[in-house]
Write a structure and sequence with these properties.
This protein has 2 domains: 2-96, no CATH class; 98-144, no CATH class. It is globular and about 50 Å long. Helices cover 22% and strands 37% of the residues. It has helices spanning 98-114, 117-131; strands spanning 2-6, 17-18, 26-28, 40-42, 47-62, 68-83, 89-96. A hairpin with a 5-residue loop joins strand 6 (68-83) and strand 7 (89-96). The strands form 2 sheets. The chain has a 5-stranded mixed β-sheet with strand order 1-5-6-7-2. The protein has a two-stranded antiparallel ribbon with strand order 3-4. By secondary structure, it is of the alpha+beta class.
Length: 144
């Protein structure tokens, strides 16, 4: 099962995809993630996200002896975009479990709430629209 999202004007995977180890950017203190104006961003070589894709995957675990164990489910999350201040593109595949995915979602929901009720309302409306087959979904009802 796969779910693709592309921002308007974004390309899925064109030429010029770069080594993901060359991407950069950072979030630094002195404050924390809940402080207003408490962090400084280094956007050098940060990826400007314009494409996501997720898939359900089965992964095999190995026991202590190296033998294959039972299959388990995980989530594959591909994030892609243009690298800031360049013409290069990057795409990075992350593999996580339900706990990792829940951590990302809860952080985004909490951040939306801290940005104020107008932003939170628009954010939640967009989530509902996309979950219901909104116009950014490739295939029927959205761009290919």
């Amino acid at each position: 099962m796969s779910n693709r999202r592309r921002a308007s004007g974004g390309e899925a995977f064109g030429s010029g995809v770069t080594d993901p180890r060359r991407v950069g950017g950072n979030i630094a203190g002195p404050g924390g993630p809940h402080d207003n104006h408490g962090v400084v961003l280094d956007v050098t070589r940060a990826v400007l996200l314009d494409y996501t894709e997720v898939a359900l995957v089965e992964v095999a675990a190995r026991d202590d002896d190296g033998a294959m164990g039972p299959m388990d489910r995980a989530l594959a999350v591909m994030l892609a975009g243009r690298i800031n201040r360049t013409d290069e593109r990057a795409r990075v595949l992350f593999i996580t479990n339900g706990d990792g995915a829940a951590g990302i979602v809860t952080e985004l929901l909490a951040l939306a709430g801290r940005l104020g009720p107008e932003f939170e309302e628009a954010f939640m409306a967009r989530i509902s629209e996309l979950a219901d087959g909104g116009n950014d979904r490739p295939g029927p009802g959205g761009p290919a």
